[in-house]
Design a protein that fits this description.
The protein has a single domain, classed as Flavodoxin domain (Rossmann fold). The protein is about 35% helix and about 15% strand. The protein has helices at about 15-25, 55-65, 85-95, 120-135, 160-180; strands spanning about 5-10, 35, 70-75, 110-115, 145. The structure holds ligand FNR. The site of ligand FNR has 15 residues, from helix 1.
């Protein structure tokens, strides 16, 4: 059985290193994962007043995209030692209306990347803080803090460092096992 995986990228820019990382992870995914990118850049900021008659169509599109998948892969840069606002907004949009969270019980993995040496550690764990509350079982090991990400890819977007490629492959294999263990659909 192949499980569907929604891939959420925290960076919105076209040349994003984290988007490249996400594409590399998808390419390394085991056969039991079918990955699909879900966009977060068009979601209006979460405002409870818009629930009811004024729900933005992009919120509905996003909620339905997540609701129908078995699992979620988060790949994000760190902004000011936290996650980018757009990704937090996507978490918020998916978490409401109260009692209808699309995240509940959905297994996930978190990978963070940065040109710096800390590899987005702060963003990785702040994201995990929200995932605890949202009842998302997030794979604990292996952890993926990818530093030096600006030097990781060749001109074609392939991973230029064999050791990192091996590690990312192990990460996705572990995620495949994690999803098989925890997925409810
Ligand atoms: C950054 N960057 C950054 N990097 C980091 O390691 N820790 C941080 O706290 C921050 N803070 C930060 C804030 C803002 C607003 C921006 C725009 C950037 C640098 C960041 O890692 C770098 O720009 C990456 O290239 C962004 O990821 P993408 O867009 O390449 O995926």
């Amino acid at each position: 059985q192949a499980f569907s995986v929604a891939v959420l990228v925290g960076s919105l820019r076209k040349g994003s290193f984290n988007l490249k990382l996400a594409k590399a992870l998808v390419a390394l995914a085991p056969d039991n994962l079918a990955c699909e990118f879900v966009q977060i850049g068009d979601l209006p900021l979460y405002d409870p007043d818009l629930e009811g008659d004024a729900v933005p169509s992009s919120w509905t599109r996003f909620r339905e995209s997540i609701a129908k998948t078995s699992a979620v892969l988060f790949v994000t840069p760190e902004y000011n030692r936290s996650i980018p606002g757009g990704l937090k907004n996507a978490l918020d949009v998916g978490s409401r209306p109260m009692g209808k969270s699309v995240w509940d019980g959905k297994p996930a993995a978190v990978a963070t990347g940065s040109p710096g040496g800390i590899g987005g550690f702060g963003a990785n764990h702040i994201l995990r803080q929200s995932l605890v509350f949202l009842n998302v079982p997030a794979m604990q090991q292996p952890e993926a803090y990818i530093g030096g990400i600006a030097d990781l890819f060749d001109a074609d977007g392939n991973i230029a460092k064999p050791d990192t490629k091996t590690f990312l492959s192990k990460f996705m294999t572990a995620f495949g096992a994690w999803v098989a263990l925890h997925a409810k659909q």
